[in-house]
Amino acid sequence: MAEEKKNVERTRQLFEEMASTGSPQPLLDLLAEDAVYKLSLPQGTPLSGEFRGRRAISDYFGLVDELLEVQEVHTWDFVGNGKQVIVLGEERFVVRKTGKQCRSEFAFVLDFRDGEIARVLVIEDLSGLVEAHAAVSGRMASRASG
Known about the structure:
- The protein is of the alpha+beta class.
- It has a single domain (about 5-145), classed as Nuclear Transport Factor 2, Chain: A (Roll).
- It has four helices and six strands; from the N terminus they run ααββαββββα.
- It starts with a helix and ends with a helix.
- About 20% of the residues are buried.
């Protein structure tokens, strides 16, 4: 089987297993030790920025669980071009801090190296999370100035 098809199938199985178990462990098991996980999320939330290395990425998923209640994940396309696989889908989640229910389409871009995931870029609208943290920061700033 060509490398492109292997990585697409590997990714499809990974997302199916994560959806059925509700656990990020299948992804963590496929990460390279020096993997990078990055979200397209403005600064100001605990999930902003890059997470480098398996341990930091594992800690990231702990933060996700503290901040969001993921209710449903649905994927509809897996596209590969050799060492890169793009996953398109959507998820429904609740921002724990505000109770706000959100629905967001996403694109995951996974870069493979020697059968392991070396980099993940998540492109998703997480504005509900950003708003929750901006509201808290804004209240704290107004208390400090008032």
